[in-house]
Amino acid sequence: MATSAATCSRTSLVSGSSSSSSSSSEVETLRIKRVLSTKLYFDVPLSKVPLIYSSSYDIAFFGIEKLHPFDSSKWGRICQFLIKDGVLERKWIVEPLEASKDDLLVVHSEAYLKSLKSSLKVSIIMEVPPVALLPNCVVQQKALYPFRKQVGGTILAAKLAKERGWAINVGGGFHHCCAEKGGGFCAYADISICIHFAFIQLNISRVMIIDLDAHQGNGHEMDFSKDGRVYILDVYNPEIYPHTGTTTDVYLERLDKALKVAGSMFDPELVVYNAGTDILDGDPLGGLKVSPDGVISRDEKVFRFAKDKKIPLVMVTSGGYMMSSARVIADSIVNLRKKHLINLEIPK
Questions:
Q1: Which residue of the set 108, 175, 176, 220 is catalytic?
Q2: pTM to 2 decimals?
Q3: Which residues span the domain enclosing 312?
Q4: Is 176 among the catalytic positions?
Q5: Kind of pairing between the strands at 2-7 and 166-169
Q6: Hey, which bits of 18-137 come out as E strands?
Q7: 158 lies in some domain
Q8: Within its chain, how far is the Cα of 184 from the centroid?
Q9: Are 231 and 10 in contact (CB under 8 A)?
Q10: Residue 35: inside a domain
């Protein structure tokens, strides 16, 4: 297991040409225009809690999705558990809007979005080869539309977090996707887009990404490698094969140290927490041996870190390749409520 904490100072273009400077300025002006014209930021009434989900998140098309180890119905089952546990009512859940092309262009290029009109390209990103044989209209509807809804959820979560202190998108966390490239079941860079929206719409100037998925967050690291406004704390398994088998006690001890260092080096105005559950013992792709109680403790530590510093926190659920992940995530949310780190009660 590796602990990577990196922040890079933002660099300016070194060409010295006025055309390069002008081009950069034009790009940023267009980005601001797109963010300010979005429909993804909307007012959420107090009759709803800052927990975001849509039934559209769940991916199902002809059983092909089962060829990838990811549980593509995980998101819906998390909410079902919370409702069954009596801590959430369906009417309290916030339904996000789908991210539009203009929203996606805040980070992605026209060329990359155009490439997703190739079913072969999407099949490579999703790591499900039979997707290449499907008409792209089907791929758009059954796979990319759910991803775009989750992107909308992550973006909205930042607004809700600033208003209420925290927000959970029961989805998102596509940390292998960057502006120009997707991969690892990640077609859109929701974390990067969310942060750029926060910079422009929420007047936030410093963001900390805490990425605790078992895999490296190479996508957002690529996007923000030269941006000093973003600090990335990434705890991941650098040797997925052979399995390293880091245990719960070791994992939590290293996390405590990493959070202490991060807190001393950077003073964020927003935390984006990528809470992958592929660190669980038995996960086929994570290679770690963290117990369900360990995951619950991990989430509690991150939420407490943000609350103690009075920093709004956005949580996304990211990877997790066992059917048990949904139950663990739901149990963790229940624990956060029990420890008064989040509030799922609606004002009377």
A1: 176
A2: 0.91
A3: 47-56+69-339
A4: yes
A5: unpaired
A6: 51-52
A7: yes
A8: 13
A9: no
A10: no
Among 280, 270, 267, which Cα is nearest to 326's? 280
* C-alpha distances out from residue 141 to 72, 99, 149, 163, 308, Å: 15, 14, 11, 32, 42
Specify the number of domains making up the chain: 1
To 10 degrees, what angle do helices 18-36 and 190-201 make? 90
Task: Choose among 156, 149, 167: nearest CA to 273.
Answer: 167
User: Cα(279)–Cα(235) distance, rounded to whole angstroms?
Assistant: 10
In-domain check, residue 21: no
At 279, list the tokens: 């660190």
d(CA 68, CA 155): 26
Residue 39 lies in a domain: no
Cβ distance 157 to 151 under 8 Å?
A: no
Q: Tens of pLDDT along 281-323?
A: 999 889 899 999 999 999 999 999 999 999 999 999 999 988 9
Strands 166-169 and 313-316, by their bridges, are parallel
CA-only gyration radius of the chain, Å? 19
Residue 21 pLDDT:
59
Look up the CATH number of the domain holding residue 286: 3.40.800.20
Which position has the token pair 């800052």? 50
